[in-house]
Specification:
homodimer, about 140 residues, mainly alpha, 3-stranded antiparallel sheet, 6 helices, about 70% helix
């Protein structure tokens, strides 16, 4: 699990570098891709970044066309961040070799085995999300004391 | 898989922040912990960082006592980087809540299921390692052209 974690981090850093992005910027785009449009406040919570850092990050990403700000159609007082990078060919091209290799790996398992693995990955994901909240709340209480 | 990847990256960034380390420095310590003592050249290959960046990184980590340089006992012309941070209480304390939560998650599976999951994680790890080499070799050929 930890070996996979280390390699995941390194892989993402290499993807970010090859796209010419800061690593943190890139991860935020990835969260938006997964969660869909969310507010800056929600992005701050999910990344553990301060709201100031998130504002600067959205500015950078908007400038290069990876996201755009938009009024929330369901609540016009809110501004949501809409991911735009799915259509960017450089992004999908960068991920393609990993995608292909992972599909090849998955094809060596039965549907029942893949179910079990997917379920485990989902639960491990939830555990990590809780741990991120835990660490960032400790960091916040330290910096405010 | 991608959702877990994103959270892994964010988790590691939050761990690095809470230990007051640069994220890349932290990941390198983590690789050393997994691989054991290796040379700067090997660390460069595993992280996708240039040899110059790796030298600066080892300097920073040596200064705060996370690693030390040492002559390789089996080949005295070689210098290896020895991880030192296992004994650091701040590191183990930071990881403890994740460790506990993951053991709790693992305990809900049978030994056979855990075998399958572990085997999958190992293979996914290898796939990612190959992809890191792939991306960093593209980056190198770009920067040298």
């Amino acid at each position: 699990m930890r070996g996979l974690g280390t390699r995941t981090v390194l892989y993402q850093q290499n993807v970010a570098t090859s796209l010419g992005l800061y690593n943190h910027d890139f991860i935020s785009v990835d969260i938006l891709r997964e969660k869909g449009p969310i507010t800056a406040g929600e992005l701050s919570k999910l990344t553990g970044l301060s709201t100031g850092s998130v504002t600067a990050l959205i500015d950078r990403l908007e400038k290069i066309g990876y996201v755009r700000r938009q009024n929330d159609p369901s609540d016009r007082r809110k501004v949501i961040i809409v991911p735009q990078y799915e259509n960017k060919e450089e992004v999908s091209n960068t991920y393609l070799p990993l995608h292909t290799a992972m599909i090849k790996l998955a094809s060596t398992y039965t549907p029942e085995e893949l179910d079990l693995i997917t379920q485990f990955l989902g639960k491990a994901s939830t555990v990590l999300e809780e741990q991120i909240h835990h660490l960032s709340s400790i960091a916040r209480s330290k910096s405010s004391s």
